[in-house]
Amino acid sequence: MKVFCLLICFQIFSATAFAQEKPRYEDLVREFDYDRKSPLDVRETGRQKRDGATVVDLSYASPRGGRVPAYLVVPKGRGPFAAVLFGHWMMPGSPLKNRREFLEEAVVMARAGAVSLLIDAPLVRPGFAIDEKDEMRSQVQGAEAGRQQLIDFRRGVDLLLARRDVDARRIAYVGHSFDAHVGAILAGVEKRIGSFVLMAGNYSDEEYVFNPDHTNMLKVRERVGDDNIRAFCREHPWDDPVNFIGHAAPSAVFLQYGSRDEPLSEKWARNNFEMFSEPKKIAFYDAGHALNAEARRERARWLAERLRLRPVDEAALARIPELK
Fold it and tell me: Which residues of 54-72 are buried (b: 16+ CB within 10 A; e: fewer)?
């Protein structure tokens, strides 16, 4: 239960500032700077053939320290290929709260002509531990993990563009829940990515927490204290997507939501959608937080159009088990 509440805190109320102290976008983007000239230090630990693609198990150096475990899924042929970065959810108890969440999807997309990079978030890397005894410290850990994940995705773009078979004009990002939150910030920071699919995310943290309609947050507020939440948020405005989503253009954004994902009502989702810059799209599915096969098919079609891919094998997509 503590872990579940913690995840709600990172994804739902992570960071904000008082309205009269709204931070400058130009200052916030610098929170995600890193040294692009530092060595990637890619280390391959294995590879296998999978249904017309090659899955490479590798890691690369994180600018924030340690290594980034990843899969690189490569199509047959010489390219140039489009590229997709995939970011997973953090659902407690799920065996797929890691880089494997989108692996089957990436193999199908490879046959349509896309290289994919799937990375583990810092939260699931060896040696990471949340301080469950100090709730406010755990929030700082969560915010810093989100910042590292975003920078590691930027480094992932560097890795992809170092390959001769990747077309720099056709790069996309797909992120679910925790990594939808990360991706919404990334959309305002990383302009080498032209298309974003953001699944089941919240993108206006302060407003969500203090909105009286969101009774699910009352116990969190009572336990942590509004003053503590606001103090935390004033110090971490770079972790609130609302400060970035109006700056996603010229990149296109596709928001996907489940109509049965109770903490994220359709009214709230549409409110978030209005704050994104154009071009943008939103869709709802008869699903919970995991979304469903229809959402998978629609994002594959959208990516195929945006990235100018070959037709996607929708029968193969339909055979992918539902996420749990």
Answer: ebbebbbbbbbeebbbbbb
Q: Encoding tokens for residue 235?
A: 């110090």
pLDDT tens-place string over residues 290-303: 999 999 999 999 99
Q: Give the start-end residues of each E strand in the chain.
A: 43-50, 53-61, 67-75, 81-87, 114-119, 166-176, 195-199, 252-258, 280-285
CATH number belonging to domain 2-37+76-318 = 3.40.50.1820
Tokens 């990360």 belong to residue:
182
Note if the pTM is more than 0.85.
Answer: yes
Q: Domain coordinates of the chain in residue numbers? A: 2-37+76-318
Per-residue pLDDT tens over the stretch 189-222? 999 999 999 999 999 887 888 888 888 888 888 8
- Residue for token pair 């298309």: 195
CA 158 to chain CA mean position, Å: 17
